[in-house]
Amino acid sequence: MTYGIMSAPARTAKTSLVAMAAVALFAFGGASDLMAQQQLAQAKQKQAPPAPAQAQQPTPEQPQLIFSPWVKLCNKDENPAAKEICVTVKDGRVESGMLVVSVALIEMAGEDRRLIRISMPYGVALQHGTRLIVDQDKPATSPFVTCLPPVVPPGGCIADYEANADLINRLKKGKLLTVQAIHMNGQPMSPQLELDNFAKAYDGPPTDPKVFEEQQKKLQSELQKRAEEARKRLEAKPPAPKQ
Predict the structure, then answer these.
(1) 8, part of any domain
(2) What is the CATH number of the domain that holds 23?
(3) How far apart are CA 243 and CA 240, in angstroms?
(4) Is 75 part of any domain?
(5) Cα-trace Rg, the chain
(6) What is the spatial distance between Cα 179 and Cα 182, in angstroms, rounded to a whole number?
(7) Is this structure's pTM higher than 0.85?
(8) Residue 225 forms part of a structural domain
(9) pLDDT digits (tens, 9 = 90+) for 29-52
């Protein structure tokens, strides 16, 4: 289940700057528990390598994803003691607006530790975990640690990776980031995100909230357009012959 690359202006209109900050707070607030779960799951995975590399089943043609650009969103709580949290994020959706993949690099001011959180849709086979591949580099692996409801954007099932300096540098210099998982029907999922604008977004200033909201509106319009085109193609398709 390999997804093609199709660019679109932004994230879905339902996601806000405040919501993304909430995601970051959740990531750092529960980091200790999540990393403990990861270490346990990774120990089990050493005995059973992740399935994505082994899947050989033929897969049906999949619709191309509509991707947001990389954007950097920063937010700070009103509490004077609070630290600023920044999220550099990109996601891919099908024309219905359903999330297929989201990758977010999360960091808190004054903290050395950074996380890359990937989100995949409900329906993934949790036992196989995930893989993260920059271009043709050696894959990194991480288990799914939990699944979040849509009210905690972007929702879906998540896996966290330690974002050390080496990984961030490879993201800055890379061309494609591949995220792999296995659907519960046994089919591999390998959406690919372009990295061309990652370095500019990560090293640059945060995206202006007004610009971000405008990008959301454009993406929503694009999703509606694609959904309408898909509906027309379906209506124009001749009915299957009766048997």
Answers:
(1) no
(2) 2.60.40.1880
(3) 9
(4) yes
(5) 18
(6) 11
(7) no
(8) yes
(9) 443 333 334 444 444 444 444 444
